[in-house]
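Students often ask why we bother encoding 3D structure as a string. The short answer is that it lets us treat folding as translation between two languages. Here is a chain of 130 residues written in the first language.
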Amino acid sequence: MPRILSNEPCKVTFQDNIAGGNITLEYTLPSAEDRIKYSNSMISRKGRKVEAVYGETRMKYGEKILSGIKDGDFLKNDGTKLSSNPESPAYNADWKKMIVDFAPDVIAMLAMHVFENALTINETELEDPI
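And here it is in the second language, the structure alphabet:
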């Protein structure tokens, strides 16, 4: 399948081992500048102290690119569906804040998928040169 080069939202589906099902997220493709900032943000240097700040970076940039959730993939505490679609009866203007606050693992996984694991080597197609 070819990669579509556009500003249209992308979708990814993850298996949610906490809920026991799948969740689908919509996200915007990060710019080249954001990809560089993401990589540079993974390490913090304060004087002589160098510290890995993977979690903070993943949360910041995952939240930035998250643009939507599939209706019904998340429920609020009262059991009602949560939606990011303003035309849905389940829409909640604070949908993104709720995901960040109560499902930070989802935000981090989105960031890792988009910024860190977008490309992998297809081992089955590699040929041994010898």
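Translate back mentally: The radius of gyration is 17 Å. Keep this in mind for the problem set.
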